């Protein structure tokens, strides 16, 4: 097949990142792939290294008022490429892709949300790919035909690594993400404050940027936490980041999936996280990750301490997480599923 991927959202989060493993899986399956992305995307070089044809553009952050401009770029690029099917990432990619290609070929969308309002914007697609079972159930409840709803968890390329570091003194807890309220970094800082007051201080490494950074730095001082704010961590820098930490903590209040979970599992670092849609889908609590209630700093502190105190449990958990990652969330597990989804969608054709 000749497949066009449309990823026009800005930033470097999990949604934007997902275009890279999708392109890798499709090229591995023997398909020709064209990726249309923003010129500012941090993933342009990675896509090029896969042998993918890349068209970049400088679309605005909110594309809907400019759909006809975006559609012109997509239409011309897809026609020149000889595309047979399109896969757009979220509403920012789907709206212009449907405007350009709707009715001419199947236009699918990869859904990355669990809010009804956001998901409803994708219902005009010829097919939707959900990344978790709860997300799939929501899409069906909103009225998408069952035969056009598919389940494919997010996945990563690259080998699973062994993490041989022994916890330092103090041990190091790390977290990555945008510094916005829904990521819950305030809860993690308070959890580290709890540990400090118990006489079990940790060093906290935070990678990311966002409007809450100043407030979080003030909270770290108030809680007596030795926190280092590293700024945005690129994909190229993540290996070194994970090698530097003993536990990865994700305190999110909302996480539809969470690429960062997979990256920690791939790096061999034990995970402590909150009970989100993504965590419920990925982890078997207590086996391949520690899952605590959202917003509960005491519970997060307890889970971090339990792992630091028990090297055997920590080793068993990372080994189990490695098996989960390779069995469910690696490109080897995903390539055949994605290939089947697109072949089925091509056979179904565009919706009437």
UniProtKB/TrEMBL annotation:
In terms of domain of life, where is this protein from? Bacteria
GO MF, one annotated term: hexosyltransferase activity
Q: Name one Pfam family in it.
A: Glycos_transf_1
Q: Which UniProt keywords apply?
A: Transferase
Q: Which residues form the Glycosyltransferase subfamily 4-like N-terminal domain?
A: 13-154
Q: Where is the Glycosyl transferase family domain?
A: 165-322
Q: Which PANTHER family has this protein been placed in?
A: SULFOQUINOVOSYL TRANSFERASE SQD2
What's the protein called, per UniProt?
A: Glycosyltransferase involved in cell wall biosynthesis
Q: Which organism is it from?
A: Rhodovulum steppense
The organism's taxonomy opens as:
Bacteria, Pseudomonadati, Pseudomonadota, Alphaproteobacteria, Rhodobacterales
């Amino acid at each position: 097949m000749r497949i066009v991927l449309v990823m026009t959202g800005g930033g470097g989060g999990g949604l934007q990142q997902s275009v890279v493993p999708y392109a890798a899986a499709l090229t591995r399956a023997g398909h020709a792939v064209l990726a249309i992305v923003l010129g500012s995307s941090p993933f342009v070089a990675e896509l090029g290294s896969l042998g993918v044809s890349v068209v970049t553009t400088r679309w605005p952050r909110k594309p809907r008022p400019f759909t006809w401009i975006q559609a012109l770029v997509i239409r011309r690029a897809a026609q020149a490429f000889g595309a047979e099917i399109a896969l757009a990432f979220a509403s920012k990619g789907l709206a212009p892709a449907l405007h350009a290609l709707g009715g001419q070929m199947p236009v699918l969308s990869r859904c990355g949300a669990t809010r009804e309002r956001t998901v409803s914007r994708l219902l005009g697609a010829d097919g939707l790919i959900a990344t978790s079972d709860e997300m799939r159930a929501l899409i069906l409840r909103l009225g998408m035909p069952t035969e056009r709803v598919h389940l494919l968890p997010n996945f990563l390329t690259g080998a699973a690594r062994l993490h041989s570091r022994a916890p330092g003194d103090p041990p190091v807890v790390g977290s990555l993400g945008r510094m916005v309220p829904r990521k819950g970094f305030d809860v993690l800082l308070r959890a580290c404050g709890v540990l400090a007051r118990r006489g079990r201080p940790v060093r906290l490494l935070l990678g990311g940027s966002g409007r809450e950074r100043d407030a979080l730095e003030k909270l770290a001082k108030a809680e007596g936490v030795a926190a280092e704010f590293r700024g945005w961590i690129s994909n190229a820098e993540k290996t070194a980041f994970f090698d530097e930490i003993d536990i990865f903590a994700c305190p999110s209040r909302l996480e539809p999936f969470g690429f960062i979970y997979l990256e920690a599992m791939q790096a061999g670092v034990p995970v402590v996280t909150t009970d989100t849609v993504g965590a419920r889908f990925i982890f078997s609590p207590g086996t391949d990750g520690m899952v605590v209630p959202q917003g509960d700093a005491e519970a997060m502190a307890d889970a971090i301490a339990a792992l630091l105190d028990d090297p055997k449990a920590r080793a068993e958990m990372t080994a189990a997480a490695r098996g989960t990652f390779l069995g469910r969330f690696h490109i080897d597990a995903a390539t055949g599923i994605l290939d089947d989804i697109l072949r089925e969608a091509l056979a179904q054709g565009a919706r009437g």
